[in-house]
Design brief:
This protein has 208 residues and is an alpha+beta fold. It folds into two domains: 2-61, no CATH class; 71-193, Alpha-Beta Complex (Uridine Diphospho-n-acetylenolpyruvylglucosamine Reductase, domain 1). It has helices at 2-21, 32-38, 48-61, 87-90, 137-143, 175-193; strands at 75-78, 84-86, 99-102, 132-135, 157-159, 166-169. The protein has a three-stranded antiparallel sheet with strand order 1-6-5, with helices on one face. The protein has a three-stranded antiparallel sheet with strand order 2-4-3. The longest helix has 20 residues, at 2-21.
Length: 208
């Protein structure tokens, strides 16, 4: 009931703001890059139209919008999700690795316990109650030695020249070529940092 009341109040608040300001405001901004691009602070609320325009500009700069003539636009967007690991595991990474604390109670079953990397499985049915940290998949990829524009010899699949999270089809690449490149990226990151990146797109007829 409380959450429903908060939701209804939020909708009313936005409508009231729109009647005065001529447009609806966003939710409090939670992404530093977006806040910086808008020239505001984290937690600020800005017109939704400004947020949309800025998000589209940021995504285009990363080659993650359909744009004729842009070879980096031939991708499925971010191919790997940002890993969520335990705080203890995150401390095994270099100090310069970006990380964001998480406190979402819905996420504990997605924690990757450090013991798993040494062949010791979690206790069946147990839910680890530990602090969670989100890592940057792009940082892990780049610091595992895979640069923008990287491709395997003879392959028509490549890492985007604008963003290491996107895998692109440079022309005539097969699904298997994309999967082969994705597996190589996974292997490099796992060998360097002990983190197994998970794909974000739904794979049909392919496996990593």
């Amino acid at each position: 009931m409380a959450s429903s009341w908060r939701s209804n109040w939020s909708l009313w608040d936005t409508a009231a703001e729109a009647s005065v300001l001529g447009g609806s405001l966003s939710r409090p901004l939670a992404f530093p890059q977006l806040a910086d691009a808008l020239g505001v602070h984290l937690g600020d609320r800005v017109p939704l139209a400004d947020v949309r325009t800025t998000v589209l500009r940021l995504r285009a700069a990363k080659g993650m919008l359909l744009k004729p003539g842009d070879p980096d636009a031939t991708s499925a967007g971010s191919f790997f999700t940002n890993p969520i690991v335990s705080l203890s595991f995150s401390r095994t990474l270099p100090e310069s690795a970006p990380r964001w604390p998480l406190n979402d109670p819905e996420l504990p079953d997605r924690v990757i316990p450090l013991d798993d990397y040494y062949g010791i499985g979690p206790v069946p049915g147990a839910v680890p109650v530990v602090p969670l940290v989100k890592l940057s998949a792009a940082w892990l990829i780049e610091h595992a030695g895979i640069s923008r524009g990287f491709r395997l010899p003879g392959s028509r699949a490549a890492v985007s020249s604008k963003h290491t999270l996107a895998l692109t089809n440079t022309g005539g690449a097969s699904g298997e070529e994309i999967a082969q490149l994705a597996r190589f990226v996974q292997q490099r990151v796992q060998a360097e940092f002990g983190v197994i990146l998970q794909p974000e797109p739904v794979l049909v007829g392919l496996g990593l």
